[in-house]
Amino acid sequence: IYPQATDRPSSTKHTMAFLAKGCVAVITGASSGIGLACAKKCAERGMRVVMADVDEEGLTSAAAAVACLADGGADDVLSVVTDVAKLEDVTALKNKTFEKFGKTDLLMNNAGTGGGGSPFGNMNEWHHTLNVNLWGVVNGVNVFTQAMIDQGTPGAIVNTGSKQGITTPPGNTAYNVSKSGVKILTEGLQHELRQNPECKISAYLLIPGWVNTQILYKNKQRLDGDAFDADKVFFHEGKPADGAWMPEQVADEMFKALEASGPFYIICPDHEMTNDKFKAAVKWNSEDIINDRVPLSRWSEQHKDEFAQLTKDL
After folding, report:
1. Cα–Cα distance between 3 and 262 in angstroms, integer?
2. Angle between the 56-67 and 33-44 helix axes, to the nearest 10 degrees?
3. Which amino acids are annotated catalytic?
4. Which of 3-17, 169-183, 230-244 has the lowest mean pLDDT?
């Protein structure tokens, strides 16, 4: 159980208010994975749910599943086909939300893609990754935040980051950059919100580890087109990896944290990395600077054994 946070505008009373029956949650990337799992939990609480995704077919199916859980059925669920990389789409999402439900209590900027690549190479994938993973969150924050503040009621903005955006392992630099940007944006947002004592909106960074989602599946499907072979996707919700968490576990962890008003960094373990090991990795990364080591030293021949020894019991 998380300790009660004291450095954010929300209290437990406020938190329970924005997760209460009748409140409105807006979730991007809601057709599958973490987004869908969170949408289902919102519906089960009696909340009304706005689901956004670029995958129209998947979104339609997901919205029907959530409607089965909602108190008001389909009347309590709004699905909006949305490309979060486009400001005009996110603006339309906000407008449709307020037209139907009149407010937003919980905003979850969750849409993401697994593309990207090395520091140099495929510029198209760099643009796609940053447009969805980073600009999608920037768009959501800029379109919704002031309206949520102006409501004068308790609320929260949850941005989905990644452990890769903090420990930045080699292999997919573009993805790491995008998720690092989400971390920095959300930290700045939370700081700005808490400067206003009258503000009842808090911000949180959701930090999943390895999760069995459709992110790689959909990205490979996008890239391969007619040549797509599902058997070549390493893992996804339908073919879960043993070391990864399921999306429902991440959703449970997020709601547990929100109910306690914190912590700001909602760190989710998985079956291969505990939170203690993750925190040791974060500390190690920061010490690359302090100790004048090479960057990403825990993966270097000179230091990898030292890090492994340090964390072997974590």
Report:
1. 8
2. 20
3. 175
4. 3-17
Q: Could you tell me whether strands 201-207 and 155-160 are parallel, antiparallel, or unpaired per DSSP bridges?
A: parallel
3-class secondary-structure state, position 32: coil
With vertex at residue 24, the alpha carbon angle to CA 23 and CA 25, rounded to the nearest 5 degrees, is 125
User: Residues with Cβ < 8 Å from 215, sequence gap 6 or more?
Assistant: 33, 112, 113, 114
Amino acid at 178: S
What are the structure tokens assigned to 202, written together?
Answer: 């808090």
Q: Distance (Å, rounded) from C-alpha 125 to C-alpha 301?
A: 30
The helix (H) or strand (E) run that includes residue 50 is strand 48-53
Q: How many angstroms separate the CA atoms of 184 and 166, rounded?
A: 10
3-state secondary structure of 2: coil
pTM score above 0.90:
yes
Structure tokens at 284: 């190690």
Closest CA to 279 of 204, 183, 185, 167: 167
The tokens 């009373």 sit on which residue? 13
For residues 49 and 74, the answer to whether their CB atoms sit within 8 Å is: no
Q: What sections of the chain are H helices per DSSP?
A: 12-18, 33-44, 56-67, 87-101, 123-133, 135-151, 164-167, 173-194, 215-224, 247-259, 275-290, 304-311
pLDDT tens by residue, 146-175: 999 999 999 999 999 999 999 999 999 999
By the 8 A CB rule, do 161 and 182 touch? yes
Tell me the C-alpha distance between 242 and 270, whole Å: 10
Helix-, strand-, coil-residue percentages of the chain, each rounded to 5: 50, 15, 35
Torsional class of 85: left (φ above 0), alpha (ψ -120 to 50), beta (otherwise) = alpha
What is the pLDDT of the chain when averaged over all its residues?
A: 92
Question: Which residues are 201's β-sheet partners?
Answer: 155
Strand partners, 20: none
